[in-house]
Design brief:
This protein is α+β, with helices and mostly antiparallel strands and about 450 residues long. The chain has 18 helices and 14 strands. Helices cover about 50% and strands about 10% of the residues.
Length: about 450
């Protein structure tokens, strides 16, 4: 890819990001608006252009394009939103620096170019909590320091590891129900129910509800082209979270959602803050468990690596990080904003700017990972940034890694000769700017040895 092509790609990626930022604002338009009046409706030619952009190579094979941007320039401006420049960071060292920089904030409610109309929680009803300042993803400073420990406790190492037997049994049960000699979509028949059931077990979502919420979480994560549809889905998703948490209030147990209520009873979190925390755990936890089919996609496209893995599954746990690095569940972070100057490689990103970090670009940076576009299953890839870095690192990382390890181990030990149902067809990826998840994965399992 030439420098000119890299610049064109960066510009088109900027359009994609800005359109999704406008979508995000519309989902929460009860709460705030952009001071400069930017909305999806006045981004020129959004719908036809959006169809074209979602078909661009970035969706299916983003790494060559990201490499061209990374190699051709340090942090670069890729567009403007609400009167503020949007910068893209693609290099590993720059990404780590931005993710912990004191002048870089996740708190979009306090971005100085937004007209904040956040509703007072006292004036909102329980199913409107997402229209208040309660989402931990957008917290910094004291509020983040107060909320983060409750999230970490809800997804603690002890609690995640305690569900290991349940995870193993669920994997076996799901595999028992799959056909061996005809095409089966492993994404929807295996990976999704495995991840959802395990996440529900950790959080304490009743088993009869554990398959209800993913459709709304999917819509939030992979915005529908119709903003109104996404808005309706958002309301239903957050309403579902509120109903689950309301029911949990009267049946506390040893689970993540009960821990959030205990934090409320201890005076740490408000009622609306625990609803916001629960929504984040459900949404982000499901995203983390998407690494099962991402990892399998890596192996099916690299037969030699698949053969090495299946020849000695006892080493799989030590090889999962490389699979996660190679196909990270998040390509880009949500936009952060600067409240002071940020210096990166001699470039000054000014205050009142947005920064988007390409985690996928950082994880394929040859300055940190030798031959990054080669899948080396014996690589020490533990320093990958797939789950972020610093104070906002994904609290579901351990769960996602465990689900991927157990899910792939169960699958490959039973069906070591599985193959794509149509090897001539490329793997289909979800049309999302920020996420990297398989859309479908039809395979032939083959008979159990």
């Amino acid at each position: 890819m030439t420098n000119t092509e890299a610049r064109t790609f960066a510009s088109e990626l900027g359009e994609m990001i800005i359109i999704e930022m406008a979508d995000f604002v519309q989902l929460f338009s009860e709460t705030f608006e952009i001071a400069a009046g930017t909305t999806r409706s006045n981004v020129p030619d959004t719908c036809p252009r959006w169809h074209q952009l979602r078909g661009m190579p970035f969706v299916s094979e983003p790494y060559e394009a990201l490499a061209a941007v990374r190699d051709s320039a340090p942090p670069t401006v890729i567009g403007e939103f609400g009167g503020a420049p949007v910068w893209l960071v693609t290099r590993y060292d720059d990404a780590r620096k931005v993710l912990v920089h004191p002048y870089v904030s996740n708190d979009f409610y306090d971005a100085p170019w937004w007209v904040n109309k956040a509703r007072d929680p006292q004036d909102a009803t329980p199913d409107e909590y997402h229209h208040t300042r309660t989402l931990p993803l957008a917290m910094e400073d004291e509020r983040h320091a107060r909320t983060r420990p409750a999230l970490v406790k809800a997804m603690s190492t002890r609690r995640v590891e305690a569900v290991a037997p349940f995870l193993e049994q669920t994997a076996a049960d799901l595999l028992d129900g799959l056909p061996e000699t005809e095409p089966v979509d492993l994404h929807y028949r295996y990976a999704v129910p495995l991840g959802n059931a395990t996440l529900a077990k950790v959080l304490g979502i009743p088993s009869d509800l554990s398959m209800t919420y993913p459709q709304w979480s999917d819509l939030l994560n992979f915005h529908m082209l119709d903003p109104q549809t996404a808005r309706v889905a958002a309301g239903k998703f957050y309403g579902f979270v509120a109903s689950v948490m309301s029911a949990k209030r009267h049946s506390l147990a040893d689970d993540g959602f009960s821990d959030l209520w205990r934090a409320h009873d201890d005076g740490v979190l408000s009622e609306f803050e625990i609803y916001g925390a629960a929504a984040l755990l459900m949404h982000a936890g499901q995203e983390a468990t998407g690494v099962v089919t991402n990892g399998l996609a890596c192996l099916l496209r690299h037969p030699r690596a698949l053969a090495e893995v299946t020849s000695d599954l006892s080493k799989l746990a030590g090889r999962i990080d490389e699979l996660i690095r190679f196909e990270s569940p998040l390509r880009l972070t949500l936009p952060r904003h600067t409240n002071g100057p940020v210096e990166l490689e001699g470039v000054t990103i000014p205050p009142r700017a947005y920064i988007v970090v390409s985690l996928a670009g950082a994880n394929h940076d040859p300055a940190h990972f030798a031959s990054p576009d080669a899948l080396d299953i014996d690589r020490d890839a533990g320093s990958h940034l797939a789950f972020g870095h610093g104070g906002h690192r994904c609290v579901g990382a351990r769960l996602g890694t465990m689900v991927a390890t157990t899910g792939l181990h169960a699958l490959l030990s039973r069906y070591p000769a599985l193959r794509l149902a149509d090897p001539d067809q490329p793997i289909a990826w979800r049309p999302s700017t920020f996420s990297r998840r398989v859309a479908t994965m039809p395979v032939i399992l083959g008979r159990t040895p």
